[in-house]
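Protocol step 4 of 6: record predicted structures for both targets in the notebook before any analysis. Target 1:
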Amino acid sequence: MLSYIFKRLLALIPTVAVPMVMLFILLRLTPGDPAAVILGEEATAADIANLRQEMGLNDPLWLQFIAWLGRMIRFDFGESIFLRTAVSDSVLAAAGVTAQLAVLALLVAVLIGPLLGAIAASTKSRSLDKAMVMGSAVGIATPTFWLAILMVLVFGVMLRWFPVAGYVPPTTDFGQFLRFMALPAVALGVLEAATLFRYSRNGVLDAKYQPFVTTARAQGLAERTITGQYVFRSALVPVVTVVGLSMASLLGGAVVTENVFSLPGLGKLLLTAVDRRDYPLIEGCIFFIAIIFVLVNLLVDVVCAFLDPRIRLDIKD
């Protein structure tokens, strides 16, 4: 297992390096002048030229790449052009808010999706099963921004149950923190629960007809024991895998959701950086998202290996 984890950690290097190199190239080839954006419409051509020289934008692309690569190796993302603060400090501060939102949304998804999936797979009512499958299809097809705006309109504007914008740290007032995070967390989590529902339902249906379940029934084990110790445990493997992949969806959805609810998270910071052509801040945000994504996937692989003995045998082989 340790050898497997070490090999996966080595594989993370190109997984993160390739998108970062592509990001560097795309940012430099995108039309627009960062110096002109920074200085504004009233800047003179001389001012823009001086700032481009100061930022190294007049250097050949290959020379810019070498300088950029040296900074990346040292994990030095420099200073944000607009915020005038270290990129690492800005990204970590915003990532804390995004992490809180992602954890709450994932909690909503995990509490709803697998439970309903198991119920749908176990129920003898075909109409209930069809209704739940149809509901999951609607949830998967629903855009995150549409549901977020709808929740703002209904629960924030019309009913006035929850605030529609802003953020309160949990260390300041945990109750207010939950009130401000409720709508964005549910907007993200409910849609992700639809995906988990599909996988958990299919996993339970598939596990119910596996040979080891038939053998357990032939040995006279109680149906409750078979369901709890064999069926659900086997069905958890694809669900855990999807939960890991859900982190990418949650991070992508957070970009939109944080702007709808004005949360000072990583998604809002990234959009602001893109709008202002803040190269160092964009690179810092993308690097952090890539690291989180690959580490979560590594964790998912390790958990699946513990849940399913067949995966452990494949690792040994």
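Target 2:
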Amino acid sequence: MNKAFLKKMILTLIMLFFSIVMIVPFLWMISTSFKTPAEVFEYPIKWIPAHFNWSHHVKVWSGENSFVHYYANSLKVSVLSTIGAVFLSSLAAYGFARIEFKGRNALFLLYLSMMMVPPQVLFVPKFIMFDWAGIYNTHWALILPGMFTIFGVFMMRQFFLSVPYEISEAAFIDGAGHFRIFSRIILPMAKPSLATLAIIDFSWHWNDYENALVFLIDHDLFTVPLGLQNFILENNVDYNGMMAAATAGIIPMIVVFLIGQKYIIQGVASSAVKG
């Protein structure tokens, strides 16, 4: 047997093993959400319930604190934050990658160094600023800061650096300015990276628990992570209901990943061409 083939097969089996280890908790969560309370702790585990119990999912979606409202809030925050983050990150990245100015690299390094600042350190300054601006306890307290992402700027800059400068120079000769080059030439070429950033950023905002916990008070403003926590606190012995609520919270992430996995691979590969 070919050594290269044997190594590839072993690597594939190892990756398959870890994939199964990762997916088993999700399968157990979904399975439990359809079981009766008596079936939760049965051993050996019955992965497929004898009878599918839909009452827990009905409770999650039509109860007093319906997840429909949490979904609407999370979609509002995640979509608006992602649109702003993709636009502002690509615009800033173009400036750092394609526009020559004094101190550009030093400024970019200073900008990157902000990634080392723990986000918890900024909670008090943010609280003071949001209270002064009148957006504390509103969704804007999550949306506006979410539009600025250091990782997004870094990722898009890496892609823009890989685009040959000859393309920009030819456009300059034809009379195009930076904004036209950015919008008509560079952005269309960056679709995989833009899609990757949008998917990663959307996932981050959808799962953001800390900021929502600190800056939102009214129950009507709660996003899915807060709604899930609230559901668990109110039903601390309803394990089936908890699993149904967790399943409801994770469905959008699964859908987004399945739709965009091709773009994630292309975007990461293209952004890593030049460092």
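Step 5 preliminary note on target 2. DSSP finds 13 helices and no strands in the chain. The chain has a mean pLDDT of 83.
Proceed to step 6 after PI sign-off.
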